[in-house]
């Protein structure tokens, strides 16, 4: 197959998968679907009320044009997209945002997403028993709970964090399955397209990932990224104090003997 024909076919396939993305990647909005996801994540890690595990993963890309290059250089000093994903206990992707360069912090990617606006609105409308679980790179919010670090073993705070980590591990496994199956997303296989089309490639891989999950296609390989501990950043426009109150209430309700 000629390079021209292959490129034309690739673009057509990627665009087609992006056109049906909303049919395959859906954040839970109905009561039945929300309860199904909560039950699945509770079975996995023993943390109640969780509607998704959230994290960001870097997808290496070919260096873009010079005037925008700095936006894509991440903390590990290679060019990438910082892709936000949310998944359930089955590693089905519930949301993806691949529009940001590697320089952008995980928390800022979340803050600019539609998911953030949706969860913020749900909280204002009185939804107080549904949470995302994220690592310490994310702000502590009434609808996004982070670990409680440096807790004494055996205390309620330590039990909370243990269940938090076990439940949130679904997103790490999701990344591993995704990159094990679609190797173009690995660091050593940088996507050789513009950032805009690279983002569409990521979306297409996520759609195919969910198709494989739906049809129970076996996972022959799980690819684990290097551990990257991202420091938190302060936010002045989000209610972290209220988030602390919610976290303490969750610890008191569910993790105190």
Describe the structure concisely for a colleague.
With 257 residues, the protein is an alpha/beta fold. It has eight helices and five strands.
Protein described:
The protein has 257 residues and is an alpha/beta fold. Helices cover 44% and strands 11% of the residues. The protein is built from 8 helices and 5 strands, in the order H-H-H-E-E-E-H-H-E-E-H-H-H. It has helices spanning 3-19, 21-24, 31-45, 106-111, 114-124, 156-181, 195-214, 240-254, and strands spanning 50-60, 80-87, 93-97, 131-133, 144-145. The protein has a 5-stranded mixed beta sheet with strand order 3-2-1-4-5. Strand 2 (80-87) and strand 3 form a beta hairpin. The termini are far apart. 39% of the residues are buried.
Q: Write down the secondary-structure element order.
A: HHHEEEHHEEHHH
For this structure, the quaternary state is single chain
Largest sheet: 5 strands, mixed
Question: Total helix count?
Answer: 8
Name the beta content range: 5-15%
Question: In one word, what is the shape?
Answer: globular
Low-confidence stretches: none
**Adjacency order of strands in the biggest sheet:** 3-2-1-4-5
Cα gyration radius (Å)? 19 Å
Q: How many runs of DSSP E, i.e. beta strands?
A: 5
> Which structural class best describes the helix and strand composition?
alpha/beta
Can you give the mean pLDDT? 93
Binned, the helix content reads 40-55%
Distance between the termini: 65 Å
List the topology elements.
Blueprint: H1 3-19, H2 21-24, H3 31-45, E1 50-60, E2 80-87, E3 93-97, H4 106-111, H5 114-124, E4 131-133, E5 144-145, H6 156-181, H7 195-214, H8 240-254
Parallel strand pairs: 1-4, 4-5
Antiparallel strand pairs: 1-2, 2-3
